[in-house]
Amino acid sequence: QVQLVESGGGLVQPGGSLRLSCAASGSTFSINVMGWYRQAPGKQRELVATITSGGGTGYADSVKDRFTISRDKTKNLVYLQMNSLKPEDTAVYYCNAVTMPHFVYWGQGTQVTVSS
């Protein structure tokens, strides 16, 4: 089993920055991919960014060139650096982990609100 704990959400003005953190514990050796998703009220949950155990990254077009996903494998931490934030980035952001055997784990979510 894997446990994920997120932190770093909050209220920020348009154009501002936030860094989200996700701490993984438990059977972290089994994790193949970690990622960040977000869900705004009335909208589908969408993939924001992913990072593989080998360090490969991917991003949704809506956040490319503004967000950066990174990891610290020694500390079992994954980060999402969010720059140039827009009101449409407002959502609950969830950390997830995909393991082998194939299970998907989710953090509790952290609210990000971009508003003036």
Q: Supply the helix-strand structural class.
A: mainly beta
User: Unreliable runs, pLDDT <50, ≥5 residues?
Assistant: none
Oligomer: single chain
The CA-CA distance between the termini, in Å, is 40 Å
The ordered string of helix (H) and strand (E) elements is EEEEEEEEEEE
CA-atom Rg in angstroms? 14 Å
The global form is globular
Average pLDDT over all residues: 96
Can you describe this structure?
The strands form 2 sheets. Strands 2, 4, 5, 6, 9, 10 and 11 form a 7-stranded mixed sheet that branches. This protein is mostly beta strands and 116 residues long. It contains no helices and 11 strands. It is globular.
Index terms:
mainly beta; seven-stranded mixed β-sheet; 0% helix
Topology, please?
Elements (H helix, E strand, L loop, with lengths): L1 E6 L2 E3 L5 E9 L4 E9 L6 E7 L4 E3 L7 E6 L4 E6 L8 E9 L4 E3 L3 E5 L2
Parallel strand pairs: 2-11
Antiparallel strand pairs: 1-3, 3-8, 4-5, 4-9, 5-6, 7-8, 9-10, 9-11
Please outline what is shown here:
The protein has 116 residues and is an all-beta fold. The chain is 0% helix and 57% strand.
